[in-house]
Amino acid sequence: MFAGLTEHAFQSSLGVADPPLIDYISELLSRFLHVDAVYRIRNGQGQPLEEVADMLIEAQTLPEGGRTQREVYRHIGDFTLFWTGLFPEVISKLRSRWCKDHFINYTESGKRSYYRASQFVDSTCEAESVLLARLSREFELCAYGLHQVRKEWEEMAGEVAIPFRGRLLGS
Prior knowledge:
Oligomer: single chain
Order of helices and strands: HHHHHHHHHEE
């Protein structure tokens, strides 16, 4: 479902026919179906980090280079893209209360995190590094594309007819 919605939104609404980018974003949606994946970065005590500021601090405490630091920066990019594109109203609520993320610009943090993740290049992740650099450069476009995906699934949900005892529910 996410692959079809993402492909349609990006190609029809944005004119973007980029299979690796579209696949990455639809896979992001599938991964983030479960809340544990959204908040998979944990602190030293094993508690999930819910604020971007805390995730950035955690990334900086890891040794320079290495797959773990790259994965944390990639996750921060994914996290900020997810919220910025699909649920920007949640970011507004987060920033309206006193917390560390009150001072965080999700778009800038996402772009910077994708860029940092793209800088860790080795033979096992070269293609993904190129894609992460593109996500950094085109973050706003991808966020807008995710917003279009949300609009399409909301429209689709309104059109779903559920048969019940010979008639349609809601009719």
